[in-house]
Specification:
four-stranded antiparallel sheet; six-stranded mixed sheet; single chain; 15 helices; 60% helix; alpha/beta; binds adenosine-5'-triphosphate
């Protein structure tokens, strides 16, 4: 029953923690990477939470058992042999004292262990994702050596953790055996002096070890539990990360997006990316923001989407600060297409439906026509049911981009914020896409960021950004 309860309670804790981690990531949204790396999230959410099982499932219940057992045994044994019972009871706290002695050292060691573990995970994930680049530059052998060295450092710290655990278990065993021996020795002396009978000595000898076993068991769980506790520091660092409060105000779909005196510096960056920028995107307009690479164009769109919070100046949609707008409302108002179209390992249809779950096949087709990708999809043997592979691997860069654009069209938001939507397209496809954007936007407001001159020709308002300022 005890094992069952332990298991059920730890399962409950694990479920709850994973749920909290998941919700935190959703709340952090695209900014989660400024708090924690992707592989660290995976490691703490999977292995880290699993490690906590010993803490909740074994250590905590054993803690109460270890506290109660010696006291109960003492209460019984004192009727048989008071001096031996007293000696045994006095020796028991030596085990937690031994645990406490190694704790500071163990804590530091386990901190290092988890640091190396997550950093190895980071490197592995990064190298795997960049394998093509490594192969192209024949840098894979070099990276492999680097990873081997990192893995070796991790192996060494793992061995140190195991050594620490073994040493401390040995110390606890010594305390337990010496304590039991001391109690036995007192009982035998008492027997020789005629203070207890043979039955009393035998009883003392038999229960002497049981004074220590629960505490000794607690000690071994403690070391495994400490590993989980070190992981929990990482978990709580993520869970404690500040999440900007969600806005609550509904926003009418009528006014412009206006930025006034907008300045923005990325966390940890040396200088500001945007400086004192004023820009207005009136409803129904086709506005283009052009500028050199790195001038801050994408950052502007991210602030409009509230992926980051505005600290200097203001960004308002229909007269309401974006930070005050209800986030779901904001997402309904603003469709957004990033520079890298993320396609899921699913069919083309399902990838498009993400933008609008109740979209009909006709609506999907219309969005694809507007993005000049329908003919391509229709020509595939499985048409819209064609699987796109991992990250859309089976498609070309331009095809992926046009599907991303179709998805943004399908979203049917009054504002369309597009970040370099035609950067991977040939001039013919680009001209078609820009034409459908200009002519077929059906009252929608388009804000397009690009460094291509072709976009300037179709837009009715063009802003130029240079080094974070309007020029
Ligand atoms: N998450 C980030 N943390 C720190 N700095 C960042 C971050 N994202 C972008 N930057 C920096 O902000 C500056 C502007 O980046 P941004 O992506 O807005 O430029 P851009 O004009 O869209 O460039 P491109 O045309 O090449 O896409 C760059 O110098 C970049 O290094």
């Amino acid at each position: 029953a005890s094992s069952r309860q332990s298991h059920l309670s730890s399962a409950e804790v694990k479920l709850r923690l994973r749920d909290l981690i998941y919700r935190k990531l959703l709340a952090l949204g695209p900014r989660y990477r400024s708090v924690v790396s992707t592989s660290e999230v995976v490691q703490v959410a999977v292995e880290g939470v699993d490690q906590l099982e010993t803490y909740f499932g074994a250590y905590l219940s054993q803690f109460f058992c270890a506290m109660l057992a010696p006291v109960t045994l003492f209460a019984v044994l004192r009727f048989v042999n008071v001096p031996a019972a007293a000696v045994l009871l006095v020796c028991v706290p030596l085990i937690p004292a031994a645990i406490a002695a190694v704790q500071t050292w163990a804590k530091r060691l386990l901190g290092t262990y988890w640091g190396r573990y997550t950093s190895l995970g980071d490197t592995f994930l990064e190298n795997l994702q960049g394998l093509t680049t490594l192969k192209v530059y024949r840098a894979d052998a070099f990276k492999q050596r680097e990873m081997n060295e990192e893995a070796e450092r991790f192996r060494r710290v793992t061995m140190r953790v195991l050594t620490m655990q073994l040493n401390s278990i040995t110390i606890m065993d010594l305390v337990a055996f010496c304590g039991a021996a001391a109690g036995t020795w007192v009982a035998v002396t008492q027997f020789q002096a005629g203070a207890v009978g043979l039955a009393g000595v035998l009883f003392t000898v038999l229960v002497a070890a049981d004074f220590f076993i629960p505490m000794r068991q607690l000690g071994s769980f403690f070391h495994i539990a400490m590993n989980g506790m070190a992981a929990s520091e990482k978990i709580f660092r993520l869970l404690d990360a500040d999440v900007p409060a969600d806005g609550t105000l509904p926003v009418p779909d009528e006014g412009p997006i206006v930025a006034r005196g907008l300045s923005f510096t990325y966390p940890g960056a040396e200088g500001p990316t945007l400086r004192d920028l004023d820009i207005e995107v009136p409803r129904g307009s086709f506005t283009a923001v052009v500028g050199r690479s790195g001038s801050g164009k994408s950052t502007l769109l991210k602030l409009f989407m509230r992926f980051w919070d505005v600290r200097g100046g203001s960004v308002a949609v229909s007269g309401t600060e974006v930070a005050d707008v209800d986030t779901d409302n904001l997402r309904d108002l603003e469709g957004y297409m990033t520079q890298d179209t993320h396609l899921f390992h699913d069919s083309i249809r399902n990838n498009l439906r993400i933008a609008r779950l109740d979209a009909t096949d006709d609506e999907i087709e219309a969005a694809c026509r507007a993005a000049s990708v329908h003919d391509f999809v229709a020509g595939l043997p499985q048409g819209y049911d064609t699987p796109v592979g991992e990250l859309g691997d089976t498609l070309s860069g331009g095809e992926r981009q046009r599907l991303g654009l179709a998805r943004a069209f399908l979203h049917d938001a009054p504002f369309l914020l597009l970040d370099e939507p035609t950067s991977n397209l040939d001039s013919l496809n680009e001209a078609q896409v820009l034409k459908s954007l200009a002519e077929g936007r059906d009252g929608r407001t388009v804000l397009l960021v690009s460094h291509r001159e072709s976009t300037m020709r179709v837009a009715d308002r063009v802003f130029s950004v240079e080094d974070g300022r309007l020029s």
